[in-house]
Amino acid sequence: MGITDYNNDSDEPSTISGLYLALCAVNLAEAAGSSSDGLPRAIMAQIYLAASIRCRLALPKLLAPFFSGYFMRRARRHVRRAPEHSVSHLLWLFHPVTRKYVSDTKRLENVLSSKQKLRFGSFVEDEQLSPLSRIRTTLKVYLLSKLVQELVGGDEIFTKNVERILNDNDRLDDEVDVVDVSRLLVSISTQCAGVLTNEKDESAKFGQWLSRNGDACCTWWTHVLTCGIYWRGNKNELARQHYSLIRNCPPEILKDNLGLSVGHALCARKICIDDRDSPKVSQYVCLHTKKALESLRLFSTSRTSGVVSGIQDGTRRMAYEWVMSSLLDAWRSNLFASKPYWTQSFKGQQMFSTLYQEAYNHYALINGTRGDCWRLFVYELTSRMLNGANPQATWSGVRRVRSTKMDAVRGRVSMRRSAQPDAFHLHTLVKLHSVMDI
């Protein structure tokens, strides 16, 4: 091609120069071939992948999809014919979600051209700054944000930081296949490359640089968020499949206040769901919720990218909601169903009221800018109930929430999913006040 142009206002090569070098690499790889005395198929696949990315960045919009797709298909052909352990770290690139993610040229350009060190908190471990590593890391953050959006509801936690998002133009509003996203995240984050046991293997000629370490933090967060989504959908059997993996908590999470608080809140919720028949359920729930609130008090938002800031806000809200739901569930387990709750008292009742009041105050503070939110109103009613408020006034508020929810179901009013009242709290409030529904 003979093109080696440079930008006029920069000492760095232009995208055309990068495309030229990528195509030269393709020509040399084709000349060497992939036979026993040629290049390993894993190397061939990476060369074609680099050419595909360069075509996406350098060519016009009409030509980029065609040529980028051509080199991507060539790469996939080599991946299918290569030994599995030598190309397992590349399989994520051919997933439909990944193809959609890299199809955004502006986002891809921002990810690859950014000179700043990307900060992702405790959600994703830092990797080497190769092009594929940058794409892999930002994709993991994007997929985690999809799970947080599905769990918390709505994308308003990301809109305030949309300027700092890595050109996330789709605004995280497409539907989420929880199983698909979770499996993709786990496959990206776990150890992908096998141990090279055969010295005559073609990839062994290039040493062990093809292998990489897994991302324990991202794997842990993936299982936590997936478990929470299953809980919300009353799919407790599917949620239990993630317990053993969540227990294997990485050391980085134990040192992070947000991760530690989410872990304690999850333990409290798990006790209420699976161990509610235990005689010490109240004691354990109070212990875990107290530790969760202590860690949440120590948490402070760090300097991160826009998407990560949204993930932090969403997981913090999730932790507070798990704490409040667990306290309400454990408090209710100490009541007798045959008597009105306002006539009963038991040992440790004040502890439930104090912990719930603190959780609600913090939750209301971080959600203060979201306007009229029926979810927040239900938590307020529960807090008043646990602190001995007039049951008639509480029941009046519950009836208002039920009426508004039914109007939303009938289409009379619109209600964002994130603003909808918490189903567990509303059901519990109705059941405790059913004696007043005369």
Please outline the helices and strands.
Blueprint: H1 15-32, H2 41-58, H3 64-81, H4 84-87, H5 96-102, H6 105-113, H7 131-152, H8 156-159, H9 178-189, H10 216-232, H11 236-240, H12 243-247, H13 251-254, H14 257-274, H15 281-298, H16 306-333, H17 349-366, H18 374-386, H19 391-409, H20 423-432
State which percent range the strand residues make up.
Answer: under 5%
Q: How would you sum up the major sheet?
A: none
Task: Estimate the global geometry from the Cα principal axes.
Answer: elongated
Order of helices and strands: HHHHHHHHHHHHHHHHHHHH
Radius of gyration, in angstroms, nearest whole number: 26 Å
Q: Which blocks of ≥5 consecutive residues have pLDDT under 50? A: 1-12, 159-173, 193-212
Let me know the number of strands.
0
Distance between the termini: 85 Å
What structural category arises from helix and sheet content? mainly alpha
**Overall pLDDT confidence:** 81
Number of distinct helices: 20
- Helix percentage: 55-70%
Keywords: DNA-binding, Nucleus, Transcription, Transcription regulation
Subcellular location: Nucleus
GO molecular function, one term: DNA-binding transcription factor activity, RNA polymerase II-specific
